[in-house]
Structure formats: structure tokens, C-alpha cells
Amino acid sequence: MSNGTGTDECETLLRKLLRGKIYGATVTGADLHNEGPIAVDTDLLAGVGIAPFESVHVWKLNNGECFEPYAIASPGAVVRF
After folding, report:
1. Which among 2, 29, 70, 78 would be 20 to 30 A from 13, CA to CA?
2. CATH 2.40.40.20 for domain 23-81
3. Coil, strand or helix: which one is 38?
4. pLDDT in tens, the chain (81 residues)
5. What are 72's strand-pairing partners?
6. Residue 52's closest CA among 8, 19, 7?
7. Residue-range domain boundaries for the chain
């Protein structure tokens, strides 16, 4: 892409896209002092197309609060809907 000065510059555009969604899940355990990853059942992650260590959004539906941990695969993790 030309910048009007006779030299070419390459512009990089990064976008976050929604790849999968787990709706209606209930958090079954939490450590309020740990802002680390969220463990999700391996089969569930694969089923919705979320890769291990991918950034995910977790919303509190009662107040709109959101945090953005990364997902880790945890075989047999308990998920309730």
C-alpha cells in the first residue's frame, strides 16, 4: 500500500472473531484470587471449535461483568447447562 511518499508500507489489521459459543454454562468452581485459565471439558472445547489456550470471554449475565481468561482442556471437567 502506498503512503503517498513513494515508499510502500504494509499495514497490519488484527481482528478478534467469534469462533464458537458455549451458552448457558454454569461455573462450578472458582478461585477469586486466581485470574488464570478456565478449565473446560476437552470434548466440549472441540465440539464448539475453541482451541486450548485460546482467549475466551466469560460473562456474568446478572450484571454484565466480563473477564477474558484463556481456555484449557480438562478431560472430564463438569459442565452444567
Report:
1. 70
2. yes
3. strand
4. 555 555 556 778 888 888 888 888 877 777 777 778 888 889 889 999 999 999 998 888 889 888 888 999 988 776 554
5. 39
6. 19
7. 23-81
